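User: We ran a pulldown and think these components assemble together. Before we commit to crystallization trials, I'd like a predicted model of the whole complex to look at. Sequences follow.
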Amino acid sequence: MSSVLTVEVVVIGAGVAGLKTAHDLLNDPKSKLSSSQVIVLEAQDRIGGRIKTDCTSSKLGYSYDLGAAWFHDTLSNEVLKEAIEDNDISLFNVEEDTYYDDKDAQLYAPEHEGPLDVVGLKLNRVNEDLEKFIELYFVESLSIPDLSLQDVSERFFIQYDRLLTEDQKFYCRRIIRHYELWYGITWDKISGKYSIMDHNGRNLLNKKGYQFLIEKLQRGIPNDRILTNHAVKKIDRTNKVNGKKVAIETTNGQSIYCNYVVVTVPQSILQLKESDAHGIQWVPPLPPNVTSALESIHFGALGKVIFEFDNVWWDPNEDRFDILADETIGIVPFEHLKSLPVPFSYPAFIINFASIHKDNNPKGSSLCIFTQSPLTDYLESHKNEAWTYFKPMLAKLARSGQKVSDPINVITSDWTQNPYVRGSYSALYTNDDPSELIIQLSGEFDGCGILDKNIRFAGEHTISDGAGCVHGAFASGKREAAWIIENIHST
Amino acid sequence: MSSVLTVEVVVIGAGVAGLKTAHDLLNDPKSKLSSSQVIVLEAQDRIGGRIKTDCTSSKLGYSYDLGAAWFHDTLSNEVLKEAIEDNDISLFNVEEDTYYDDKDAQLYAPEHEGPLDVVGLKLNRVNEDLEKFIELYFVESLSIPDLSLQDVSERFFIQYDRLLTEDQKFYCRRIIRHYELWYGITWDKISGKYSIMDHNGRNLLNKKGYQFLIEKLQRGIPNDRILTNHAVKKIDRTNKVNGKKVAIETTNGQSIYCNYVVVTVPQSILQLKESDAHGIQWVPPLPPNVTSALESIHFGALGKVIFEFDNVWWDPNEDRFDILADETIGIVPFEHLKSLPVPFSYPAFIINFASIHKDNNPKGSSLCIFTQSPLTDYLESHKNEAWTYFKPMLAKLARSGQKVSDPINVITSDWTQNPYVRGSYSALYTNDDPSELIIQLSGEFDGCGILDKNIRFAGEHTISDGAGCVHGAFASGKREAAWIIENIHST
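Assistant: Here's a predicted model for the assembly, 982 residues in total across the polymer chains.
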């Protein structure tokens, strides 16, 4: 392929958002674009972005989604709805390839033997009340200053002290930290104001792996229209040559000229300065409304550590385990996590593959532990220390008479170590604003974003419904393809 | 007392709303009214309205609230907040006189021995999804026609058929009927559109009884300012005599002249025609906007049946039991319930006094069963048939090796039989409108209600926050007292 390419549309990034954009541009009956007019540039040597189904690392024959793993908001999830309607069981069998892994979680505390009596102590009731309290606290007035999840929670325990038991206060103070395993950051950082979310339905685990969606989208895009190992280093919208409005350069020397660009790189990449490694140079620079919006939100680092065992020494009938942190340890700030923290420093959330695959279990099984930043960053770069950290915590799960065995295999995600991803997804720190970036990048608000409307954005960080999720990224790609098709028609 | 009275303010009804109005008129430091200027007219021979703490019927020494029994919305409940702040433990001891009776309910089905495995079958997860589905179904567009709770639920089970197990479909179709024991009407009548409610916090059972609140309010009102057995039959706002704008007549021949009236009679009484027994004659008649709003909402009949036993043959550690209906029986329409229905015709919700009083239990204990219309109407007028109906249902609760014994005492509510109450509280039938009556009666919307602004309304049916609840009635009384104090100041 020549080092100069001329097309109509360049899609930057071959994750769900980018692939969905290209797919629709090439398959929507209303589109006039031929495949030669669309190109997808992908920085990495693989496509899929933050969807990464690992089918080869397991010694048990499992496949693991190291990135996105659930269908969220299943009452309004377009990706799930299409999978049901497609009814293409060779690609994805909705009945067999999914599992609602949402049986009430077993809860363990460092100072307590065996699971806590969550029902008897009414810990879920108190936690529901705490969450409602937080919601109401910030609803009171729009001008109430944000507080961290940790600080706003403490106000509840002070105010309702007389109506709660000692056990409820002791445990529920820490149970609320389960949000760390949603946002990928610790509760001293999580925005209390935006911590409690409403969901459109249950979460449905994708047992087979999200790779099916990448394959499905890829089927609508000729192979030669996706260029991997093509990291964009410059987007010049002052271009005057080749009859195109925009010139794009990649780090491997490719120049591409086009009229439309759909930028689907992660928020974490947009947040890099042009001088940073892997930063993108914008000509002219991104306007202040966009750069300021990029400063109003953070990026989390939800990670996964999977231990495979040759025997199941924990309860194979439970979907999930929550292990509370030892709150006396306190939170080790990010910059100080230079060595392995002591076990129980952070709460852990664990999904149980023995339950997920209970109808079809090999001899052993595995536990998949979710981690938050800064633990994610540490373990993703020190994989061989993961078992040392988690062994005393997982020992809580051992059934009576069962001995914890060492894993036969350790698999971890590597998102923080991947220079093209740098974490998991958008996360709201205290005082962050969840809507500003979406307003600037969704293309749906006049006078916002880049005023050259031929520069578009897609991805989980550019959309409100499904923010941070596969179906959000998917919908944002659909949105941009539709906009370009409509815009080409009308020009 | 003379048969002609002249005052400034007449409060009609000595329930929470009326007593709170009178209390604030006489105790608010901003009020200029002396006690001789305020009178409360109560139709019944007792005060309290739909608060009725029965301290005498029990053979076990318990007190039972036959009307309102919980603090609802406890994160924003003004009555509870005041009780905490008062800290007057001789009147009400918040720590000892309340109990969060919200441990996960044990669930029983007619065709199943012992409690259902709610956790293992994930029935609560499916029910949460169903409730969210209903919410989203009607949020889709404001113009979507209402459906009964029964009909909208069925749409969920059709749409998500492939993702649910047979057990989940079988049981969850009936679990959603628990709303019958909230609204006091059956699910074929309940408005689907307004069935799913958001609450500001847990429900806290008032163990001691709500009588404390009546006593508290009563302390601020001289005894002679409340006239019981004074049922109002006429409100004439064309009055020209005695220098007052309004003349009121009671069925026992009392005439009262005043400038302000606060009407706190139940919605069910306002809905009576002037020609009906216990109806109120309005001169001039209520305007069409008010009468039409009164036709846009119904009145439910939540009832209670309490069985006392001299031994505890059920589990004393469970707070609540839910017994599902046998759906093959179908729903017996109201007009046909001329004889006792077969057991399991309606779902039952039961609170367990053995658990509520577990630290201080007499030899036996009691179960309090909630009933919905039309069962409430039937059992409140055929109290001696209650055990025949419930015995086979309660037998589900017997612990292994324990024999169900006959009750030593049966206590029922009598709200449907009380001509001054006629049921429990506002209930939304399919196609009803929850806001119209509040708009007309709350006094907060210009051009609504009665244009003579000196005629005010209060009660659970006149307020949005706390509708149907004690704290709503309380807040509505507070609202009207504040309005009158302000209005008198400014005239």
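The mean pLDDT of chain A is 96. That may be worth checking against your pulldown data before setting up trials.

User: Thanks, that helps.
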